[in-house]
Amino acid sequence: MAIQTTNPATNQVVCSFEEMTDLAVDAAVAQATTAFDAWKTTTHAHRATLLHQVADLLRAQQEPLARLITLEMGKLLAQAKGEINLSADIFDYYAEHGAEFLADKPLHPDHGSALVRPSPVGVLLGVEPWNFPFYQVARFAAPNLMIGNVVLVKHASSVPQCGIALERLLQEAGAPVGLYTNLLLAGARATALVSDARIKGVSLTGSEAAGASVAAAAGQHLKKSVLELGGSDAFIILEDADLDQAVRWAVVGRINNNGECCVAAKRFIAVEAVADEFLAKFKTKLSQLKVGDPMDPATELGPLSSEGAAAELASQVQRAVAAGAQVLLGGHRLPGPGAFMEPTILAGLAPDNPAYREELFGPVAAFYRVPDEAAAIALANDSPFGLGGSVFTQDVARGQRVADQLDTGMVFINHPTWTQPDLPFGGTKGSGYGRELAALGIEEFVNKKLIRVS
Ligand code: NDP
What angle is formed at CA 236 by the lines to CA 375 and CA 383, rounded to 5 degrees? Predict the structure, then answer.
């Protein structure tokens, strides 16, 4: 894939970048290794100052950075601004809580005294996706810089300017040379880089194929990996749900970020008693969405991130229909330039339909009706993915009982799966392993060193 900015609202190529040579990558890894030797000796307070400075700069440059996001991957400008604020909040969160998370943990052994001292592990590689070009990097970089690790970031080839802007911002914030390095590389070369002995771990957010490739290389070289892959979150509507609230959140859960979220609500599972009413209201709201230019504040649904992404989604819909699905709304690309897809609802997806198990990364909702709660849980769990999920009921205890039975890393009651700095994020099954954000997110690339005194 060429490393270039292509505006998905017009499909015009804006600018292209040369990939780094092997020699340049080698020099970057060497520089990062040198940076680690110094950074690991700094205090928590020193690291926190840098992280706060990054947060301040993100907020100060919110408008131009948000425009860059929208230009490169098509997110609505207001949501891009929200992403910059959220990224700043993540840097602030680890600056404020990092020292507490990383404090010595005293132990009380039978003999002697002992403690566990969280220590950095070294240079890490982050392989990041285009769907949240700042937030995804923030949740990898902020905790790891706070630990004392050093990061190399291989960003998606479709958002090179976001990657370059983040590196520049870290430099402006006062990061020493080599602390944070943006690598302009194609995906396959990131896998090859995992074998470099100077790199101690890898974190990837993206597709299962990319995750498997990176994790295989990490396993072969005995390195830790964290994977945040796709999802096909169930959105369960029980008969005692507040239906208007459920419909409102169903629309947000499906089309937030133009539908390109790993934790988007993708499978809408309504029990029979409320299925017709939910579907009618959901369909009306989706059909009223204003689709168009993501820079225009009046737009409610923008393009997909690229022509390739839109073509793939449209072909998934066609394959689903060929295998017996019904299209209840939309189903087609929109005419004219740009990677646009109509808001779409598919129904009648049998277990042998490819769309029953695939992730639909865009504004395509899969609708299912089931007899009761038990059937809703069984259907929700019949997925290769296990990222998030939500259940709508006015009985919170019932919602918690349903949550206990869902095979996912996250469950939200009366809300679509969401993210904030102080909630751990991650999945099970084909959605990957490990956690990001909150206290758990700072524990992945830490050497929990035992120190015992006799
Ligand atoms: P990819 O997994 O290809 O891209 C994510 C990142 O992985 C990019 O930086 C990419 O680099 C890199 N990458 C790709 N192949 C390899 C490899 N063999 N070794 C190491 N790194 C690699 O996702 P796509 O952009 O192709 O999107 C495809 C699908 O993946 C989506 O439709 C969605 O289902 C899922 N996805 C999920 C995301 C999530 O948030 N969990 C985010 C993005 C995608 P490069 O861009 O250079 O290829």
Answer: 65
Residue 290 Cα to ligand 1 midpoint, Å, equals: 28
Verify whether residue 228 is a known catalytic residue.
Answer: yes
pLDDT digits (tens, 9 = 90+) for 102-114: 999 999 999 999 9
Residues 6 or more apart in contact with residue 225 via CB below 8 angstroms: 201, 202, 203, 204, 214, 215, 218, 219, 434
Q: Please give the Cα distance from 98 to 243 (Å, whole number).
A: 41
Could you count the other beta carbons within 10 Å of the beta carbon of residue 244? 11
DSSP secondary structure, 173-195, as one string = HTPPTTSEEEE---HHHHHHHTT
Question: How many other CB atoms are there within 10 angstroms of residue 112's CB atom?
Answer: 9
Ligand 1 nearest atom to the CA of residue 312, by list position: 32
381-425 pLDDT per residue, tens: 999 999 999 999 999 999 999 999 999 999 999 999 999 999 999
pTM above 0.95, yes or no: yes
Residue of 128, 162, 262, 373 marked catalytic? 262
Q: Which residues line ligand 1 (CB under 6 A)?
A: 1, 127-129, 131, 154-157, 186-188, 190-191, 205-207, 210, 213-214, 228-230, 262, 359, 361
CB neighbours of residue 99 within 10 Å: 15
**Closest ligand 1 atom number to CA of residue 229:** 41
